[in-house]
Amino acid sequence: DTHHSSFVTLHTAQIIMSSRGGEGDEGHLLIEEDMGDVLSPEEISDLITKYSGHEIVKNVLECASLEELNEKASIANDRLHKLENESIKQHAKECDNLVLLQEKIHDCDETLAHIENVLSNFQTSLGKISGEISNLQSSSSHVTQRLLECKETELALGEYVEQLTISPDLIAKVLSTEVGDGTEYIQVCKALSEKLIFKRDVKRRGGQDATYAAFTDIESELERLRIKAIQKVRDFFIQKFHSLRKPKTNIQLLQTNVLKKYKPLVDFLQVHGADIFREIRALYVETMGKVLKTALQNYISALSVLKLESGSTSKNKTGQYIGDVDASASSSSATLLSASTSANNASGGGGGGSGSHFLSSLGQGSGIAGSIPTTNDGRSAHTNFSLGKRANILANIETAAPIIAHSISGSKLPWEALFRSSQKLLVDMATFEYLFCIDFWKGDSQIFRDVFAQPLQAMDEYVQSCINTNFDAIGLALAILINRGHQKLMQRRRIPSLDLHLDKVNIMLWPKFKMVFDAHIKSVVSACENAKNQTKLFVDDVSAHYVTRRYAEFTASMTVLSKLEGGDNQLRNNLERLRKAQYDLLVKLAERFTTPKRRSCFLLNNYDLIHQILSTDENLEHELGFFDEQLIIETDAFVQIELETHFGDALLQIESLEFGKTSPDVAVEQSIQILKAFSEQWKQQITKINSEIVSLFSNYNRGMDILQRTLSSLLVKYTDACEKTSASGEEAKKTVDAIRVTNAAFLFECKRYARAK
Q1: What is the rounded CA–CA span in Å between residue 436 and residue 430?
Q2: 310: closest CA among 446, 414, 388, 227?
Q3: C-alpha span between 300 and 501 (Å, rounded)
């Protein structure tokens, strides 16, 4: 490479020097003869540019004169010849190596040719092998297809032969194995069922299969095995179903742990012994129907011992409706109401509105329940009018278990508690039995209806008998809500088995409830319209009447239950009718008192009692508003009567006197005399007013309110009289100021009576 580079450089320098020396005839530059090249000017220019950086070329280009250039050209030629000679010597030295290389290349060519020949032969052999492989693949596919056909034929023929064969083991197990020995007999029946189904299908298809000797041989044998298996399964189920009738048997446990294991045997009977299946089904329906009916009747009978007897359970007893005459309540009404109101005052509930919510926590608060008077034996005297703690039963309709009768022996429970317990037992029984029937009898819901026909009949008779002798509207309303709760429970369980029964119970309860409610209204209306009934109800006592307490408690109870029911317009309309009848009755009874004061006091005590009871629940504002208006009106009337009783109309006369018409002025003298008499007697009269109010009103807070209103009205009238008299002249004013009772003294007396509480 170094020699070549130097050679090219020297060649380039020689060209440059030649180009400076002159041009040929044809415009080409001629170089030395040994170069043998003729270059064009463009090529010479390219060479100069390419090697312009070389030291030799650079020196040539820098020559200033031709002589210097020729000298350098001569030197360059010498070097060029020297380099050429050295190159020739090197090639001569390598000549042997080149000959050897050529021989090796020739050997390689021969070796490659031999390899090529071998590869060609190998390629030819591979082509032959590929053809043989294709032939083998084709043969293999054919063999595989034949093998599959043989296997299919073997499988079909094997199954057919298997079905035509009855093993001695199967015959022995059908004849000797007991059904109740675990699940072995279930597997035996399953194997037998497959052979019976095969026999049935062959006979159904017809053709040559049914004429084979092998098929004819097994047909009769299979029939004998079928009859034997069905007989054993029938006896097993009969024995198990009869065991359900034994006393104190845990039926649900037997159904779950025993019968459910043998569900496949029911399928076996249904497919291969339809008549026996119907017989077993009918036996189960009869057995379970009687067992469940007996269990339900026994439970209802045990609950009947716990029933709380009240006036609402017999149509012949008195005092079961609001307007009925109750001799015991009539003779002791004043004592009961006074004691009840005193207890209310002691607890701070006097004026109403400060008591607890009527149905806080569904009857767990005090409310009305805490103020219901009781008889000597501890039973509620108004259980058929007040809700009280009876509403607690609505708090756990779905979760509470049925009552265990013997665990609470000696206690007495209202009818709705027994109704809830018996219905809850029925609901739970129906839930379990429905799920069992759907599972055990393969979705046959009709068998549940057949089984439960007898228990539902017993339950319907029980409910109907209880409803026929029940005249307790609150108990009936609670029963309606309980029945609705059970309907929702069954809907959440997604079990439609009792829909018809619960709808039927609802249809039985509602008409009876409406009839009893109408009877309450009718009793009040009858007492209002019938003078004889009014005479029986009338007691010459200004205390609140027991009919009023019945009305208030009944109204409060029905309003709350109506809200739980979701609101019933008809019920609200009936309450309005009852309210009007009650108001008219109170007015009629008040008219029987001999003096206006006692009439007004009687109405005030009754209105106040209604206010106390109805103000315990915010849902009763509608009913409360009417009687609160009457309470205000009657309070104003009583204040006026009280002032007229103790002070006459003297203060009112002062307002009608005409001063300055006579001389001396007689009117002024009369007015001063009236005021002077008032200043001498006012304390004694106020004391009398206080004594009367305390004795007339059992509710102390209501009495104090009326006293304050009376004294306030008296102060206003007295102040107006003094002002009018003082305005008649200076002399009259001095006289009035001298005898006038000061407002401070008046207010002091008012506060003194207020503190007496």
Answers
A1: 10
A2: 414
A3: 17
Amino acid, single-letter form, for residue 376:
N
Phi-psi region of 729 (alpha: psi -120 to 50; beta: other; left: phi over 0): left
What are the structure tokens assigned to 725, written together? Answer: 């008299």
Q: Using DSSP, state whether 29 is helix, strand or coil.
A: strand
Residue pointed to by tokens 């190159």? 87
Q: Which residues contact 239 (CB under 8 A, 6 or more apart)?
A: none
Distance between CA atoms of residues 617 and 297, nearest Å:
40
**Helical spans, DSSP H, in 22-94:** 41-50, 55-61, 66-93
Count CB atoms within 10 A of the CB of residue 77.
16
Q: pTM, whole model, 2 decimals?
A: 0.66
pLDDT at 423: 92
Whether 244 shows a pLDDT value over 50: the answer reads: yes
Choose the weakest-confidence range: 235-244, 619-628, 644-653, 724-733: 644-653
Distance in angstroms (rounded) separating the CA atoms of residues 551 and 167? 86
Is the pLDDT at 205 greater than 60? The verdict is yes
Beta bridge partners of 30: 38
Helix ranges (DSSP H) in 444-498: 445-468, 473-493
Spatial distance between the Cα atoms of 725 and 670, rounded to a whole number of angstroms: 10
Q: Tokens in use for 75?
A: 């030197």
Closest Cα partner for 466 from 292, 309, 290? 309
Question: How far is it, in rounded angstroms, from Cα 643 to Cα 678?
Answer: 12
Residues 6+ apart with CB under 8 A from 506: 480, 483, 484, 487
DSSP state of 380: B
Least confidently predicted of 8-22, 215-229, 530-544 = 8-22
| Average pLDDT value over all residues in the chain | 78
What gap in Å lies between CA 697 and CA 692, rounded to an integer?
9
Q: Which of 681, 667, 653 is nearest to 741 (CA)?
A: 681
pLDDT in tens, 607-652: 899 888 888 777 677 777 888 888 899 888 888 888 887 777 666 6
The alpha carbon dihedral of 340, 341, 347, 351 has a sign of positive
Buried b (16+ CB within 10 A) or exposed e, 204-242: eeeeeeeeeeebeebeeebeebbeebbebbbebbeebbe
How far apart (Å, rounded) are the C-alpha atoms in residues 310 and 374?
Answer: 13
Residue 38 DSSP symbol: E
Taking the C-alpha atoms of 118, 123, 124 and 129 in order, what is their torsion angle to the nearest 10 degrees? 130
Q: Are 298 and 460 in contact (CB under 8 A)?
A: no
444's torsion region: left (phi>0), alpha (psi -120 to 50) or beta?
beta
What was the pLDDT predicted at 239?
92
- Find out whether 448 and 533 touch, Cβ atoms under 8 Å: no
* DSSP at 404: -
On the question of a cis peptide bond just before residue 41, with omega within 30 degrees of 0, the verdict is no
* HSE-CB for 94 with a 13 A CA cutoff: 9
Rg from Cα positions in the chain: 62
Q: How would you classify the pairing of strands 38-39 and 29-30? A: antiparallel
